[in-house]
């Protein structure tokens, strides 16, 4: 949990108390519960994601009931399924069009490592072209695993400093992928 402290009000100020916390924690908490995912599904992992969005698993309880199919209105890219090398530039373009800050989940064995398709035409993990924050294992992963991966992204977002995106380490990471 974030460290929110209730502090007694100074003399002369009405009320029983007020909240004192850092801006990083407030913004992180708000961001973590208002992520707008963009599902980029190409095969069977996409079907599992559809099950996750259904009423039985209720993905909406995490604040992400609005999947966005426009990269400009999304901040979480969920890549699910086999990504062919010809699809790589399209995936990178979608990533670059997303709002900053942006996060990426690689769902399933194919998006994480190429899966069983060790061929010339299949990308052996999307981390060849874009940075990945969370990997969800499985072939295909169960909805519970997708929810667990989403919870890990929420934790990462909640604890991320507002200054991380401006750090030299982050800029160096993006430059390795050819992103400025």
TrEMBL record:
Query: Where this protein primarily resides, as one coarse class?
Result: membrane
Q: Which cofactor does it need?
A: [4Fe-4S] cluster
Q: Which residues cross the membrane?
A: none
Gene3D superfamilies given in the database record: 3.40.50.12280
According to its record, what are the GO cellular component terms? Answer: plasma membrane; respiratory chain complex I
Tell me which SUPFAM superfamilies the record gives.
HydA/Nqo6-like (SSF56770)
**A GO biological-process term:** electron transport coupled proton transport
Domain of life according to the entry: Bacteria
Bilayer topology: Peripheral membrane protein
UniProt-listed Pfam families: Oxidored_q6 (PF01058)
For the ligand ([4Fe-4S] cluster), the binding residues are 44-45, 110, 139
Q: Does the keyword Magnesium apply?
A: no
UniProt-listed Enzyme Commission number(s): 7.1.1.-
| Job description of the protein | NDH-1 shuttles electrons from NADH, via FMN and iron-sulfur (Fe-S) centers, to quinones in the respiratory chain. The immediate electron acceptor for the enzyme in this species is believed to be a menaquinone. Couples the redox reaction to proton translocation (for every two electrons transferred, four hydrogen ions are translocated across the cytoplasmic membrane), and thus conserves the redox energy in a proton gradient.
Subunit structure and binding partners:
NDH-1 is composed of 14 different subunits. Subunits NuoB, C, D, E, F, and G constitute the peripheral sector of the complex.
Cited HAMAP family: NDH1_NuoB (MF_01356)
Name the protein family.
Answer: Belongs to the complex I 20 kDa subunit family.
What is the official name of this protein in its record?
A: NADH-quinone oxidoreductase subunit B
Q: Which organism is it from?
A: Daejeonella lutea
